[in-house]
Amino acid sequence: MGIRTRGGISACLVAGAGLGLILLAGCGKTPKGQVVAIVNGNDISMQQLSVEAQDLPLPIPETIDRRALSKAILQAVIDRELEVQAAREQRLDKTPQFLALKQRNEEELLAGMLGHKIAQTVPLPTAEEIRNYIVTHPLQFGQRQRLVLDQLGFAPPGDRRRLAAVLTDAHSLDAAAAALRSIGIAAERGQGAIDTGQADPELARQLDRAPAGEPILLPQGDRLVVGVITAREPIRMSSDDIRIAAARAVRAAALLHESQAQIAAARSTAEISYGPGFAPDKPPAARR
Known about the structure:
8 strands, 3 domains, about 15% strand, four-stranded antiparallel sheet, alpha+beta, Chitinase A, domain 3
């Protein structure tokens, strides 16, 4: 089997997130201050192996030799260390591109650690919150469906208002295709499917209300599609699966709310100045 550590170096075994403690237990050592290799004068510690192990997928097969696994991870770290040393010899660490990427990666790491700390302060959802979520989101659970669509896919045009205008009177997919051609859009026809349990709740409600055969304009990654629902297939879920999925959704919403609240609080007291042309657009004035 093969493992991949941070930086893309391959080794010969697979392990799991949180594996560091298991590796250490297998070697009978503590990570702090333990040097496991020296590469051209640079130490590699057991702590580094523990960090690397956190990126590997669970579960860990019981048959894996923990010592062999730690050695495999170490070889991957050594390979990367040699690459890093070669890059430094070529002074790649002094280039503007490296410095910008280093700053971004450091900021993303710190923001991620803050998010993890916030998650520890947000309580788990209560049974009542889970029940309420299930009741208020039927298309994710009791009425979950797989919607089959005939659709037209195309790159978004610059003028979205014109697109919406020409589609207003299109009440079939053929009519929608003709409307798109009238404004120079060449669309690809095909089939698609949407799981209402995985879709944005508002989009799921919009699809549920869509009249039979009526074209609907939908986002699809970096493209748009105009689709017509041709079949609705129920998706059954066990009560346990429903509760677990609802609990995850409630917690995710709570974490997002708390994170956004903290960002809003920080913005309210921060001193932010913009260079010419980079300030955000002002919201339109309210009509009297």
